[in-house]
């Protein structure tokens, strides 16, 4: 045993995984062996979800069955809707979605004994149900902020088109649906990141998958992790336009601020997903005729490269892309949840299949042993 401390577990390998491989040397990311940029280009979010859970891409029949299953589970559970309605409009959508997922768990009547909590087949069924329900939950979390009613799902639409239909009440042009689908694929999985590790810690106690996802959402909320896509948009609004990027960055770095959407624990030479998401952002910029967004994006990226040689992560192009699509900024990280629930739950199943309780050690630095004075 060693007393050497690795702050933040940086560089520590804690377990094996067959779900994805992040390779900073070659700047590549593989889901079950497939390069993520190929998946984004050639597959749908449904195919990628199937791949993450089953380890293989579906054939035609498997995909049709999987899509039918997902479409049959899309209607927002009325008790979940009531629970959301009971929350104040001031609640952050991350807290709304976290609460809704927790309610889904409390409603699941198959969670009868502790053996059923961790049953592999039931865990997969629950994971698919959460994934199918999250578009309704996130869309409703957005709509209630605009004083709009719930939109019922359409079972003639794919996952992303239906997600946008439930959010905005109409299906946008194909170019928007495709950019959204790409973001769902890129956000789906990233090995032992903080939220996935949280889900695995919870699963390792032999708790259920809803609890693991609820905890993972809490970890994702912070701006050092998923909350950064929301923070990027706030930074863009603070800066205003490309002209202001250099001065804004100089001041922010002088104040020792962390620049949101830049840097990564694993990638040090750029995030493997950024070129694909930046291309999706560029198509949106063209579609919505908003060139100034890309000008600001490029100006801040260049200034940050020159000042610190730190590259953007996936949250950097995703934030402005979701803004162009019409989402409120506070909904950006909930969108990340809807995508990452696939990866989280694939990891929960992997953890359960070869479980060891995750319980590290700490180096005690408090007072030496001392004693409470005896009563006089
Ligand atoms: C999808 C995702 O979750 S990706 C991550 C999203 N998060 C963000 O975008 C938040 C901004 N980024 C960060 O805070 C960090 O880069 C993290 C948390 C993502 C990674 O952090 P770590 O791996 O711990 O890197 P660490 O903090 O050690 O950074 C190394 C150096 O680069 C600096 N640095 C890293 N990222 C940034 C940044 N975004 N802005 C300014 N400086 C930075 C650090 O201050 C540190 O400098 P120092 O050596 O002078 O102290
Ligand atoms: O891997 C990480 O540390 C953060 C993360 O989830 C991602 O980049 O998608």
From TrEMBL:
Pfam families linked to this entry: Citrate_synt
Cited PROSITE patterns: CITRATE_SYNTHASE
UniProt key word Cell cycle: no
Reactions catalysed according to its record: oxaloacetate + acetyl-CoA + H2O = citrate + CoA + H(+)
GO process terms (BP): carbohydrate metabolic process; tricarboxylic acid cycle
Protein keywords: Acyltransferase, Transferase, Tricarboxylic acid cycle
GO cellular component terms, semicolon-separated: cytosol
Single GO molecular function: citrate synthase activity
Superkingdom of the organism of origin: Bacteria
Catalytic residues (UniProt): 264, 315
Membrane-spanning segments: none
Annotated pathway: Carbohydrate metabolism; tricarboxylic acid cycle
Family, per entry: Belongs to the citrate synthase family.
Name of the molecule in the record: Citrate synthase
Originating species: Microcella pacifica
């Amino acid at each position: 045993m060693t007393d050497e401390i690795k702050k933040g577990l940086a560089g520590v390998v804690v377990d094996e995984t067959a779900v994805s491989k992040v390779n900073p040397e070659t700047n590549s990311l593989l889901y079950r062996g497939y390069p993520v940029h190929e998946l984004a280009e050639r597959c749908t979010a449904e195919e990628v979800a199937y791949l993450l859970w089953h380890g293989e891409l579906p054939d035609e029949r498997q995909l049709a069955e999987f899509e039918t299953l997902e479409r049959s589970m899309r209607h927002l559970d009325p008790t979940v809707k009531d629970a959301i309605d009971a929350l104040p409009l001031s609640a952050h959508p991350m807290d709304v979605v976290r609460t809704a997922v927790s309610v889904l768990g409390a409603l699941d009547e198959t969670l009868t004994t502790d053996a059923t909590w961790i049953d592999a087949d039931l865990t997969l069924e629950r994971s698919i149900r959460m994934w199918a329900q999250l578009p309704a939950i996130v869309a409703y979390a957005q709509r209630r902020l605009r004083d709009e009613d719930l939109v019922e799902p359409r079972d003639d639409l794919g996952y992303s088109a239906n997600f946008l239909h439930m959010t905005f009440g109409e299906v946008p042009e194909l170019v928007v649906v495709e950019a959204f689908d790409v973001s769902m694929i890129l956000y789906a999985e990233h090995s032992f990141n903080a939220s996935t590790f949280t889900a695995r810690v919870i699963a390792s106690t032999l708790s259920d998958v809803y609890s693991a996802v609820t905890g993972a959402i809490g970890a994702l909320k912070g701006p050092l992790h998923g909350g950064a896509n929301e923070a990027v948009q706030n930074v863009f609004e603070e800066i205003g336009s490309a002209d202001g990027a250099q001065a804004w960055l100089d001041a922010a770095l002088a104040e020792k601020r962390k620049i949101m959407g830049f840097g990564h624990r694993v990638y040090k030479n750029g995030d493997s997903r950024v070129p694909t998401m930046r291309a999706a952002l560029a198509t949106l910029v063209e579609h919505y005729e908003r060139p100034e967004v890309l000008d600001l994006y490029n100006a801040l990226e260049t200034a940050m490269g020159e000042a610190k040689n730190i590259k953007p992560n996936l949250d950097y192009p995703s934030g402005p892309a979701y803004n162009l699509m019409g989402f409120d900024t506070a909904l950006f990280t909930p969108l990340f949840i809807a995508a990452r629930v696939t990866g989280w739950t694939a990891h929960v199943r992997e953890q359960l299949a070869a479980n060891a309780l995750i319980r590290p050690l700490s180096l005690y630095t408090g007072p030496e042993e001392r004693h409470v004075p005896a009563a006089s």
